Amino acid sequence: MNLTNFRFETDSDGIATATWDMPGRSMNVITPELMGELDQIIDKVAGDEAIKGCVITSGKESFSGGADLTMLQGLRDLFVKLAKEKGEQVAMQSFFDESRKLSLLYRKLETCGKPFAAAIHGICLGGAFELSLACQYRVVSDDASTRVGLPEIKVGLFPGAGGTQRVSRLMQTGDALQMMFKGEQIKALPARNTGLVHAVVPRDQLVANAKEWLKANPQAKAPWDDPKFKLPSNKLYSPAGMQIWPPANAIYRRETNDNYPAARAILSAVYEGLQLPIDLALKVESRYFAKILRTKEAASMIRSLFVSMQELNKGARRPADVPPSRLKKVGVVGAGFMGAGIAYVTAQAGLEVVLVDRDQEAADKGKAYSHKLVSDQIMKGRAKTADRDALLGRINATADYAALKGCDLVVEAVFEDPKVKAEVIAKVEAAIGPKAIFGSNTSTLPITGLAEHSGRPKNFIGIHFFSPVEKMLLVEIIMAKKTGKKALAMALDFVRAIKKTPIVVNDTRGFYANRCVGNYIREGHLMLMEGVPPAMIEQAGKQAGMPVGPLSLNDEVAVDLAYKVLKATKAQLGEGAVDRAQEKLLAEMVETHGRLGRKNKKGFYDYPEAGPKRLWPGLADLVATHLDPESVDMQELKHRLLVTQALEAARTYEEGVVTDPREADVGSIIGFGFAPYSGGTLSYIDNMGAAAFVKLCEALAKKHGERFKPNKQLKRMAKMGESYYGTAKKAA
Ligand code: NAD
Prior knowledge:
By secondary structure, the protein is an alpha/beta fold. It is built from 30 helices and 21 strands. The strands form five sheets. It has an eight-stranded mixed sheet, with helices on both faces. Strands 1-2-4-6-8-11 form a six-stranded mixed sheet, with helices on both faces. The chain has a three-stranded mixed sheet with strand order 7-9-10.
């Protein structure tokens, strides 16, 4: 055999071990070369009489994260090329054959006549978990890091290497569907309890356990290859089976709003596959897989959530000529809501933190937040007491600015007040060295203005986190007029160290993310004032693919904050810059009714002590007109809610705030949950086509006002048939 990605050895009992350990990679992935080697291993095991069975395990810290998605991107490109050269039919056939290679390979492994066992520690996801499902035995380590699952849906795909068929033959159908719709990662014990794996043992006993099983079961077959095999939820057309499908359809709609073709394909592949013998069922799955691979949703999601995200994480925007910074000590000034979170993620990354507030009590309170977060992790079994002690040991909470001496970077998260910020900038710069970088977490104050208070504007940059800091993946890095490349490099190195994803934007009011999401909230407010029933507004947001409706979202970020931002915009840019209807609504909500949002349990919703939140009935009295729900066009509401965000993204791109479509897209999905199936704000426009988008904007502008008027660049793109990605490529 000619192997570079596996080590292969056979012990004196005739049990082989294939250790998957790809050179030069921290994580094993499935690539065409890997598939070729696995094929050789299967032939060797099947053909060598001395070998009784084979364990597949990993030589890395984890089993594997699954397939290399760029391989699938390559397949799509091949299709386009073939379709052009040889016609659609030849391209389709070749696409189908290529896209089912992995599925056939796994089936070959499963039926080669010798048993295979997967010994799994750490992450085992997607195509890698599908490999283990084709093994007759799966044993996983009891380690907290061990997870199995099929997360393909998260990038617009579905498990196309046997996953839909094998999982639905191992688990109750409802559970299998749920697991694949959600793309859940399942820990060791629940995986065993639901029948996905056979055993859970300590890590050091994994391979021995798998070998014992192979020795005891030399004739093992997959359960579905036994003629007496019965489906866990019984036959489809049985009373029990019929209990499953009507609710399954409802769950599908509830979870996806029919926005994800891949989720619909899961439902169809399982429904059809369970009525067929396994080989035919796998073929049905392959047909759906080939179809899904060609959808624009899969293409856009793979591009934004896999390829672009990886590129941004690896420093696509980092100035290459600045050597990597060796960040050791980071200051955080302001230990409130945001500062406490920033201190936590920084200490979590192993960096020393100096957490400064006005007095010791406030600083300690900020540090206590870290104590609470790690304690929650300990309760969930994800951390140990020693981890908490070590993490807290890295946070020095103090009221003394002098403690900031020696910091490589200081992030400021004090009150959103230019005077307070100016004072803090002066105090921090008096304490830190001349090369240290100063980052401001302001959400509304232009960084260039703040940098005027700095003696070293080259070292001054915006580092904008989203709340809650420990959960939100996005960080916006804002370049002020005079920000230098060393500051940018340091900020990006910091974001990478704390394992978040950065986008780099130029300075403007609201930067990028808040401008787009602010429009989403405003559109909800305006719909309300037009007399659209609030429940329909909220539903339209969710059906459009947003994580929550605009009114709900406003409650989360605070209604008074929206009012404050509106007033500040009016003060700076004049009457014309704000919408009168929105101003009236916010003034009544905040000033007349004291409805500030979730924080005081009174916002667009009521938040009763017991039971779920409910829309506040008083909203009806704030509105002069009440539209008949039957007269409201739901599709138009959905368009308004997405178009207003995408259009704002287009404006930021034209203004040079966002300079790379990848950042606009990735930032929109991970920053404010913009309909992930679209691939992000600019992909949404590209997928619709600039001409169609401009037409839609113009129709909405005619009916609802100037705010929908398309910007110049978009109109030009529509005329010239350009796209953001096409144009960006041309420019590169
Ligand atoms: P907060 O009121 O919870 O915390 C501010 C902290 O700063 C308080 O602990 C206060 O004691 C401290 N502080 C005030 N003056 C100080 C001084 N002179 N020296 C040291 N500490 C001082 O506010 P927050 O919500 O954490 O917001 C902080 C910053 O983060 C603001 O600029 C805000 O715009 C920005 N931001 C907030 C959010 C959010 O969702 N809350 C999101 C992104 C960015």
